[in-house]
Amino acid sequence: MSRVAKLILNPTSTTRREIALKGSLLSIGRDPSNDLVLPDAMVSRRHAVIEYRGSQYYLRDCNSSNGSVVNGDRVEERNLRDGDLVAIGTARLLFREDLPEAGAKVVAHPSAPRLECSSCQAEYRKGDLFCRECGTAIAPSGPPRVVCASCGTAVLLPARFCSSCGSPLTPDRQRIEAAKPAAEPPPALTPAPLGSSLLPTLESDEPPTRPTGPAPVVDPPPPSDPRGGRFQAATAPALPPPSVPLPRPARSTPRRDDGCWTLRPAPPRSPGHQGAPPADVGHRLLAGLVDVLVVLAGEALLLGPLTYYWWSREASDLSFLPVLASVTLSVVGVLLGAAYFVGFWGLRGATPGKELLGLRVTDEDDRSPIGLGRAALRFLGYLLSAASLGIGFLMIAAGGGGLHDRVARTRVVRREMGKA
């Protein structure tokens, strides 16, 4: 029984190409010496290999920088099955394996629904995650996910930013939700003319007249269950789409007023709102320098007299009270520096340096200020970034947020025009 396997490169684009897996090893990478060359900066020189072992194909990652993703999961080694979608950099590889069937062939029941891809109308099997022809994602078995176009990581919806690299997500929600059963549209709402009543007038002696238009067409009921089921679902009549759009309910946010918590509707967002744009590295660096200068100026005012005192004394003049005062003031200076950042982040949403350059700190849902708890967690991330020799701060230049942003799940964005 022979196995015929192949890879379909970028199945949904115009650069679609098929690569037959003939040998026992296929190397994938950016270097021209590989069997499959992917000229992409996100692909390592020797990124991954596909090898044939024990009558099966395996994908093995070669310690690449951005990793290899199969069906939205980052893997080190994975047994490939027919219909698996491999993401390496920005390239998509659809694995197809044609295995001749032996013996009896399973035929679907005539009344069973036909499983078709919403993009190419190709038939797929039950349990498939991706279409075998075009690679489109089929109804997921778990929560809806979308694959980040920058790093290939599967992110749970309704997240708007990748949890791995921080890039903004633009998921094709219609494609993901296409396989779900569509909900029936609400009944049409037609505004009544001014001065008219929705109820029949009680003074009239005549009964209300029935409409003379054609009766609504009702779809016939579905065929009976071939397994002999006792219950049968009735099909509701098809209703036209609403002529008047219903307003979406406003989300309520708690607000403390006169010692008690009340609810107020959140401010509505404009249609097509995608969140504030992230701040660039240059503005964040300048804002950080301004904040450091402010903190150093405050520390100089607090510890300057103490420094002058010790500078003018000899080593033999040491006493207990000056040493105790020095330790106490040093601790107070450190706490004041921490309170500067935590207080401005948590209560105002921006430090003076960020306000000067038009930046603000928000959470993942663009809410600002972020609160004292999240601000304290962000300051701990600052300390971790400094303890890692500044690597946590260098992550900002690589794209996304720094280590402190990832720890506290915050973002630094440009303040929108007209907002305080």
Provide tags for this entry:
420 residues, alpha+beta, Tumour Suppressor Smad4, 2 domains, six-stranded antiparallel β-sheet, five-stranded mixed β-sheet, 7 helices, elongated
In short:
The protein is an alpha+beta fold and 420 residues long.
Q: How would you describe the overall organization of this protein?
A:
The chain is an alpha+beta fold and 420 residues long. The chain has 2 domains: 4-100 and 110-177, Tumour Suppressor Smad4 (Sandwich); 281-414, no CATH class. The chain is built from 7 helices and 17 strands. The strands form 5 sheets. Strands 2-1-11-10-7-8 form a 6-stranded antiparallel beta sheet, with no helix packed on it. The chain is elongated.
Structural class: alpha+beta
Terminal residue distance: 71 Å
Q: Please give the domain count.
A: 2
Average residue pLDDT: 73
CATH domain class of the largest domain: Mainly Beta
Tell me the CATH architecture of the largest domain. Sandwich
- Number of H/I helices: 7
**What is the fold named in CATH at topology level of the largest domain?**
Tumour Suppressor Smad4
How would you spell out the order of helices and strands? EEEEEEEEEEEEEHEEHHHEHHHE
Assign a percent range to the helix content.
Answer: 10-25%
DSSP, total strands = 17
Rg from Cα: 32 Å
Strand arrangement, largest sheet? 2-1-11-10-7-8
Largest sheet: 6 strands, antiparallel
Report the uncertain regions: 173-180, 194-205, 225-236, 256-263, 269-273
- What shape does the CA trace take? elongated
Strand content: 15-25%
